[in-house]
Amino acid sequence: MEAIKLTARTSTAIRVARGGALQVINTHGSQVADTWAVLQGDPDHGLSMEHTRAIHGRLHVRAGDVLLDDRRQPLLAITEDTSPGIHDTLIPACSAARYRELGYKGEEDHDNCSANYGHALTSVGLPVPARTPSPLNLFMNVPVDIEGHFTFAAPVSQPGDFVVLEALEDVVLIVSACPQDMAPVNGESQEPQDVELRVYNPAEQAERKNS
Amino acid sequence: MEAIKLTARTSTAIRVARGGALQVINTHGSQVADTWAVLQGDPDHGLSMEHTRAIHGRLHVRAGDVLLDDRRQPLLAITEDTSPGIHDTLIPACSAARYRELGYKGEEDHDNCSANYGHALTSVGLPVPARTPSPLNLFMNVPVDIEGHFTFAAPVSQPGDFVVLEALEDVVLIVSACPQDMAPVNGESQEPQDVELRVYNPAEQAERKNS
User: Fold this and answer.
1) In this structure, which long-range contacts are made by residues B113-117, counting pairs with CB atoms below 8 Å and at least 24 apart in sequence?
2) Cβ of B91 and A148 within 8 Å?
3) A87 touching B, CB under 8 A?
4) Blockwise average pLDDT, block size 10, chain B, 211 residues
5) Residue A47 CB partners (closer than 8 Å, separation 6+)
């Protein structure tokens, strides 16, 4: 097992072999982790929120679910989730434009998950697509009412809550500790926090599942 | 005004200048029209369902809404909608893989909106991206319950109902008359139908809005 401290506002890309897994630990309890996956052998294709929603007939994913890629192939499985299970599939990664909408006036762009996605891909030598795919927003709380209206609320997860994503193909997983500090996405305090990642090889993940 | 009959199961790409508009007429009342837009000057970028949902805080769009691109710029506006206003932003374009899931066994792929998107782009000399962006599924009825579960229901639109999309930039609009005949997406009869398109230049659209 390899442990990685993902610093608040930053991202990383991790190669995970088929059968291996990534554990995303919400160390402080209130931090959203934007998460993507692309195929190691065909990185133009990867995790798709829209195809995953459609196959399950649900806006949200939960433990036990298989997550599909954009060609509808099984790519990941949620094998564990100790949080209340509130995650988002509807909202795009935050971007420089989003922070300007919220009133950010800096000369340089605000840190953002779209840029973080590009940085992480570049760090492992992968091309950056023109459009950032919709991420799986782990721990993000976007309650939807019966009329389809939604809000951006603080996470309901607790310190130490985690999700385990098992790779069903050889993938590159990308995680961004969301830098949102102008809305309660990362908690009422609006302070982005670190996240801990643990990477399990296939033998270690098999042992997790059997224990 | 230019009128185009879009044959059931097929697609087309139409250049619309800023200020012009496309009217999508549900001739038979029950036909879903998967609709996309890309910028004429930068076709790697275009209409984004995820950014449009996020800016409005709603799963669905309606008359009066501005629709954003993936860089959060206003791209289209829904200036008219004579239907009950039930359209979908959640579901990806149907694909060859989707029909195989539903039991299709043909040697060749079933007609599908993802392939139609590519055909339409190619027809106007534009590149086809690896991933098909999520379309605006005009007239598609995907009711969502309070727990976030949804179903694929028959449209509630009536023959002759239409939507007008005004271009806020110079765009290429792509429309696919969805070939879904294995689920009630295009009505309980599951028979894909033609759609009529009308293209208005900026002067004609200005006149529509002022009349």
Assistant:
1) B113/B11, B113/B34, B113/B176, B113/B178, B113/B179, B116/B9, B116/B10, B116/B11, B116/B34, B116/B176, B116/B179, B117/B11, B117/B34, B117/B36, B117/B93, B117/B174, B117/B176
2) no
3) no
4) 97 98 97 98 98 98 98 98 98 98 97 98 98 98 97 97 98 98 95 97 95 85
5) A35, A36, A37, A38, A67, A68, A69, A75, A76, A133, A135, A136
pLDDT of residue B114: 98
Residue A211 scores a pLDDT above 90: no
* Cβ–Cβ below 8 Å for B148 and A58: yes
Do residues A16 and A22 touch, judged by C-beta distance below 8 A? yes
Nearest residue of B to residue A55, measured between CA atoms: B98
The 3-class secondary structure across chain A, one letter per residue, is CEEEEECCCCEEEEEECCCCEEEEEECCCCCCEEEEEEECCEEEEEECHHHHHHHHCECCCCCCCEEEECCCCEEEEEEEECCCCCCECCCCCCCHHHHHHCCCCCCCCCCCHHHHHHHHHHHCCCCCCCCCCCCEEECCECCECCCCEECCECCCCCCCEEEEEEECCCEEEEEEECCCCCCHHHCCCCCCCCEEEEEECHHHHHHHHHC
